[in-house]
Amino acid sequence: LEDGSLLGRWSPPVDSLQHGFNDVALRADGTAVVTDPGCGALYAASLGEETMRAVLPPESLRGPNGIAISEDGSVAWVAEYVYGVARVELDSETFAPLQVPTHIAFIGVDGLYLHGDELVAIQNYAGIDRAAAFELDETGTAVTSVRVLESRHPRMKDPTTGVIVDGEFWYIANSNIAGFNHAEQTPTRDEWGTVLILRAPL
Fold first, then answer.
1. How far apart are CA 23 and CA 13, in angstroms?
2. What is the C-alpha separation between 162 and 145, in angstroms, rounded?
3. Cα angle at 152 between 35 and 169, to 5 degrees?
4. Phi/psi-derived region of residue 125, left when phi > 0, alpha when psi is between -120 and 50, beta in every other case
C-alpha cells in the first residue's frame, strides 16, 4: 500500500463451475480468504503461491458472502446470507452453523466484521436494513445477544459493506445493489444517486 506495487494476482480455478468472488479477509499470516457465492466455496490465496486453494470445496456453503476472521487467524465466520452464519476452522478446514437464539434475527448478512467479542454485521434482507453487533460466547460458536446500531435509516437502501476505524463502524448505507442487479442496463450517475456513508459508534 505504501507505493501501490502489485504483489500478486490470483484467478478462480479453471473448471466448469460458476465463480464470483465476493468478500475477502486476511489471516494473521497475511493469507487472503475469499468467499465465492457462485459455487459455494471458500478459497485462500497466499503470497508465493501461484494458485488459490479451496479451504471449503464447492457446494460446502450456501451463498457465502461477508467474512470475518479471528485475531489469531484460526477461525472465520462466513455469512451464508439467508441461511445464517457458518463458523469455519481454517486449519482443519471444517465448519458448522453458528448457533443463534430463536429470538435473534441473524440472517441476510452482507458485510461481516469482528470487533472484540462481537460480530458487526450489515443486514439487508426482507426489509431488515440495519447495522448490528452480535455478541459471541467464549467459544465463538454461538451468539448470546445483539445490539442494533442503526435500523431502517430513512436513506438506507440496500446497505452493504463497511470498515471499523477507531471504535466506529463506517458503512455504505445506500448501495442500491438490488436496483443495479435488476436493471436492464447500467444506471446512469443521476439514476444511481449520491452514495451515503453512515457511521455508528461501537
1. 17
2. 21
3. 55
4. beta
d(CA 27, CA 184): 39
Owner of C-alpha cell 452464519: 85
Which residue in this structure is represented by grid cell 470487533?
Answer: 115
What residues are paired with 121 via a beta bridge? 112, 132
CA 36 to chain centre: 11
With beta carbons less than 8 A apart as the criterion, state whether 134 and 84 touch. no
Q: Which three cell numbers stand for residue 90?
A: 481454517
Please, which contacts does 52-55 make with residues 24 or more away whose CB atoms are closer than 8 Å? 52/10, 52/11, 52/12, 52/13, 54/13, 55/88, 55/90, 55/93
User: Are 195 and 167 in contact, with CB atoms under 8 Å apart?
Assistant: no
For 101-153, what is each residue's pLDDT tens digit? 999 999 999 999 999 999 999 999 888 899 999 999 999 999 999 999 999 99
